């Protein structure tokens, strides 16, 4: 059978070149060098794709990538080291550990909203874990995709890491091949197609999907600060952020106040005319522009609402008294529209959230600990930030990922390394003390069975020194006994 593109890449992986930590570090350093040397070109591509300013690109995309590279470089040796685990009596004298090892060839498919981070963050984990990788940036952020294809082979080992560009047909063609892991970021609809394609080869998947992330504002909170933080998180990147607050839930009594505070903040952030603000982005293309605009149809505009198709510009917009059956509440907005839905208190807000798909992120603003506690215990979501938005994403020790319809698997920091490693169970025994194994060998008797049960069922409790020493003493005593039996058997009568 003819070798596929991925088979060729697997051969390179199997040469073992990517396994030594030295090689992985070299590749990570080269990626960091790419980020620093080519920063201006990357920022220019993002400007052309999304009208993103260099400050915003640095804050939202380039700095997190650089931090991830530095973290992986610094921590990789510890992440890749064998981890000893608790033993039972049966394995007390053996080496028992978990060894992270590379999976093989990983396919990384990214989105257009943060085109570099959505590819490079998983790629950093793939390199750190010793894998080969194929990356497929989104065709919609075309300037970034073109630049990535040009730059990556100039810095990384081009036999081990490949860039494939193209749209749906190219991605579908890729998905026919057998990868060892697929890391997909994008919509839930395409996520299902990716998982179906992966199932044909029993390839495991990470699906970083989206959905509607709710934001509950309790009347007992600092509404001005809450609105300032929400306005930042919602309208950054023109609302095209997977964990942007999708809609606000609040009691009717504070709706006017919320609109007022958001208005004040918008004025401060983007001045009178957001269209001419260097900090305000654009919608990625006219297809998404038309989609986002059509979501406004039934709604009452409280703030904004202006648009310009020729520039894919939609003003930061707040919609008031939005009803649950409106079209805008049926799909992820992924644009600069912020609906306010009113509910009668916390219990109704919880019911509202639980009646829908589990979100990627959940936000709650409250000064009342019991409100926060109830939100956290009575709902579910991929991640949650209390009294702010987006910020859980920035804590690299927290696993980032969805639950239910918002995805499966997790990444960031060590979690990316773990996600793209196989955690191999290793038990290394010696040939000594064979007589201890009699308990599991036929002919089985009640005495042997109870001995086997004892050895298999009792753990060495590493936190309790007494317990460990008791186990070791028992094993030594049993070993001596076994040796004595052997010696006596061999002694002529
Ligand atoms: P998308 O699903 O349209 O595209 C993502 C990738 O899938 C692209 O590379 C594209 O080429 C490919 N693709 C598109 N259609 C395909 C098909 N039919 N078959 C095979 N491949 C296909 O998603 P998008 O519009 O680029 O991104 C928006 C979605 O991604 C939103 O739902 C957002 O919430 C989500 N998202 C999630 C995260 C996260 O970390 N969880 C991050 C960013 C975006």
UniProtKB/TrEMBL annotation:
Source organism: Danionella cerebrum
Any single Pfam family the record assigns to this protein: Aldedh
Active site: residue positions: 208, 242
Annotated Gene3D superfamilies: Aldehyde Dehydrogenase, Chain A, domain 1, Aldehyde Dehydrogenase, Chain A, domain 2
Molecular function terms from GO: 3-chloroallyl aldehyde dehydrogenase activity; aldehyde dehydrogenase (NAD+) activity
InterPro entries: Ald_DH/histidinol_DH (IPR016161), Ald_DH_C (IPR016163), Ald_DH_CS_CYS (IPR016160), Ald_DH_CS_GLU (IPR029510), Ald_DH_N (IPR016162), Aldehyde_DH_dom (IPR015590), Aldehyde_DH_NAD(P) (IPR012394)
Designated name of the protein: Aldehyde dehydrogenase
Transmembrane segments: 468-488
One example of a Gene Ontology biological process annotation: aldehyde metabolic process
Start and end residues of each Aldehyde dehydrogenase domain: 11-422
Entry keyword Oxidoreductase: yes
GO CC terms: cytoplasm
Family: Belongs to the aldehyde dehydrogenase family.
Keywords: Membrane, NAD, Oxidoreductase, Transmembrane, Transmembrane helix
